[in-house]
Amino acid sequence: MSDSEEESVERQLKIAFLGDSSVGKTSIIKRFCQDEFTRQSTPTVGADFYTKHLVLPGRQDVTLIISDIGGQELTGSMLDKYLYNINIIVFVYDITNSPSFESLPLWMETVSATITNPVLSAAFGNKCDLEHQRAIRTDRIQPFFQQCNLQNSPVSARTGEYLYSSMMELIAKYLGVHLSKVAREQQQPVVKARLVPPTAVDSKRPKVKRVHNRNTNTAVCVLQ
Ligand SMILES: Nc1nc2c(ncn2[C@@H]2O[C@H](COP(=O)(O)OP(=O)(O)O)[C@@H](O)[C@H]2O)c(=O)[nH]1
Ligand SMILES: [Mg+2]
């Protein structure tokens, strides 16, 4: 065996994303594997498969085989095939869609009834860029995940926020690899913000009106 072969350890990990339709499973996988996002949504029929290659500290080469399983597979007959020899399962819900959170227990029960091998599970609360539209209160979420002993991370497929670090943490945890903060966030994209032209900002600012106070003969400002 050559030195380079000895130094690099090659692993294959199978990761499955599960959850209701439209929570953003395909978008999360595409952002993670291809760094792209589209607003268009085509429902995943059956399952799609993606691969991604990572090099973890200690020169561990990891090939990820990621299964994007369509939401309708909750009641389908193929779930056991898609989850065969799976290592990591990520349950996805949409923070702006309460029913997608309510159906997590059913997804978890279905998985437990389907697989026998030990897996590492986690949950992603997707669309955290839409925090202002949050439909599930955080004080409901925390006790649920504590009870299930499941790591829950907010992520956004649209901006990529928290997604790379959450994925890296999961993979490292499964492999028992220590990740430094730098390694965890190595692939974290820069979140891009749209610049608003000054005129649009100005028109939204409250108008300041000068009011003359006759009693004290001073001028005050009021916001309108
Ligand atoms: N704002 C926002 N929209 C998202 C996000 N992730 C997915 N979407 C949108 O949600 C819709 C459903 O996404 P898709 O990935 O097809 O969901 P899937 O059925 O779970 O695979 C699409 O219109 C996506 O553009 C996100 O993080 N933020
Ligand atoms: Mg899909």
TrEMBL record:
Keywords: Nucleotide-binding. InterPro entries: P-loop_NTPase, Small_GTP-bd, Small_GTPase. The keyword Thylakoid does not apply. The keyword Nucleotide-binding applies. One of its GO terms (molecular function) is GTPase activity. It comes from the Eukaryota. PROSITE patterns: RAB (PS51419), RAS (PS51421). Belongs to the small GTPase superfamily. Rab family. NCBIfam families: small_GTP. This is SOCS box domain-containing protein. It comes from Photinus pyralis.
